Amino acid sequence: MKKYNPIIILTIAISAIIIYCITRNKSLIIGDSVQKEIKKDSSIKEVALALPKIMNNSELKLIQGKGKFEIEKVAKEQQTFSFRNDSSSSVFIKIIPQNKLGNIRINQLISPNNEKDGPFGQEINYDLTEKGLYQIRIGESLMQGDPFEGKYTLKLQLK
């Protein structure tokens, strides 16, 4: 029996390797289909599903003074969003259109006491002089290009 032990061990090892390779190939095939399903639910879509849809005239919820929002805009529509300032001295706001040449900008910033300032470009660093609810109006520049329609990202950071 002793002279058959190496043959038995070698046979078991080779069988284990063959089973591993067969199983691995099957798991790769299964893994591929799972990856395709994950690609269908991309991280952007997962974020969109996880966050409530940002509607016009809604308050933006900032987490630790920061927020990033995916928003869709219809042509010739002016959108208004608000954010709350409790203790910050300034805010950084940036609009990133999906089409980099999109005609979209920050039209106005309205303070809690209803003072209006603007127009601005796609990016501003603005001093906040009081606490309360600020409003951001976003739309096209009437002096340049075609009306913007599509998706854009709105980033806010209180400083």
Q: Can you walk me through this structure?
A:
The chain has about 160 residues and is an alpha+beta fold. Helices cover about 30% and strands about 35% of the residues. It has two helices and nine strands. The strands form two sheets. A five-stranded mixed β-sheet has the order 1-3-8-5-6, with no helix packed on it. The chain has a four-stranded antiparallel β-sheet with strand order 2-9-4-7, with no helix packed on it. The longest helix is centred in the first third of the chain and has 36 residues. The relative contact order is 0.19. About 20% of the residues have low confidence.
Q: Summarize this, please?
A:
With about 160 residues, the protein is α+β, with helices and mostly antiparallel strands.
Task: Summarize the topology.
Elements: H1 5-40, H2 43-50, E1 58-59, E2 66-73, E3 79-85, E4 90-97, E5 105-110, E6 116-117, E7 123-127, E8 132-139, E9 150-158
Parallel strand pairs: 1-3
Antiparallel strand pairs: 2-9, 3-8, 4-7, 4-9, 5-6, 5-8
Summarize the helix and strand pattern as letters.
HHEEEEEEEEE
In order across it, which strands form the biggest sheet? 1-3-8-5-6
Q: Outline the biggest β-sheet.
A: 5 strands, mixed
Mean pLDDT over the residues:
79
> Can you give the helix content as a percent range?
25-40%
Proportion in β-strands: 25-35%
Round the Cα radius of gyration to an integer and report it.
Answer: 28 Å
Question: How many extended strands?
Answer: 9
Oligomeric category: single chain
Give the helix/strand class: alpha+beta
Gross geometry:
elongated
Low-pLDDT stretches are: 25-52
What's the end-to-end separation, in Å?
Answer: 79 Å
How many helical stretches?
2
